[in-house]
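[User]
If only I could read backbone structure tokens as easily as an amino acid sequence. I have put the entry right below:
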Amino acid sequence: MVDYKKVYLDNNATTAVAPEVLEEMLPLLKDSYGNPSSSYSFGVAVRESIERARSVVAASINALPEEIIFTSCGTESDNTAILSALEAHPDKRHIITTAVEHPAVLNVCRRMEGRGYAVTYLRVDSDGRLDTKAFEDALTDDTAVVSIMFANNETGVMFPIEALGRLIKRTQGKNALFHTDAVQAVGKVPVDVQKLNVDMLSLSGHKLHAPKGVGALYVRKGTPFYPLIIGGHQEHGYRSGTENAASIAGLGKACELSTVGLTEEAVYLGKLRDKLEAAVLSACTGAIINGRAAERLPNTSSISFEHIDGEAILMLLDNSGIYAASGSACSSGSGKPSHVLEAMSVPVSAVHGSIRFSLSRYNDSADIDRLIDILPGVITKLREISPLSRPSTCTR
């Protein structure tokens, strides 16, 4: 096999740990391994590292340190936020979310439907945008919690969280708690909880160059909160279990790095994404940029190719050392297309041929050039052999 330079374009799935983050973590893995709940100095030093990280994470989203709860991941943060909100409003039996949420939200809502809750799954248009009027109409006195993502993990389409928060506070649903899954947004675009009008916000370390296995949940001061994990007194009683101190320190460093030059990095990634999309549209007809007309994350591009299988595209890209993600979510073997793209009414002829390319600060123009050198040939080859294909229209 040819030894190609790795081109990693799946940063919405996970990111490389930044060298500075690893350096921050190592002392807590090697020498400073005391239990942060211990009262002696060897443990207190670890506790101080955790609290420093808490302050940095808080500052990165304009929160107070005491409003940050460290968790194991974005999924735990999402689960905790929704279930806590329901427990805070035991007399309310209505949940509002969207049809394009991450499974960490959707599957909680589906479980609660089985327990007698009514759930409104708001629809999106063909560009993945939310209808704010439909959102306002869905709010009732019985709404306990609203959980709507900041940015979609597949398409990068961003929702108007600040405006939705204002609607909640001035309508029938004014007592509903508002949670946003900002896992894909933090570290990529400015996130300011003082402006967003949210009560809770989820983030995850491995989406912004911290390690896997650490996340955080912002809970606005004064918001009623009920822990999901119960045991000791860790995280001020909000999340029991000995803290993952090294990873928490890494998350703090990653958040610090993400706030330096955030605007410049967003512009840089947006230019790379636009270069990628323009080249694909030029080289291949029958390619659809999903969510193109909507406000999107600068690093994310979801492209559907008509009459072709996305998993086959990924396999051939993999053979050339290029790594991306399928938008058809077939990893379970079910063969079902992405619920996000279905909700956007992507044509049946294209929904199974969807690929997500997601960039990070470690990508460069040469990576995009390499992709564009390989991708049109992959599409042409697959259309030639696919029983669903039309004559190839890819050129290079």
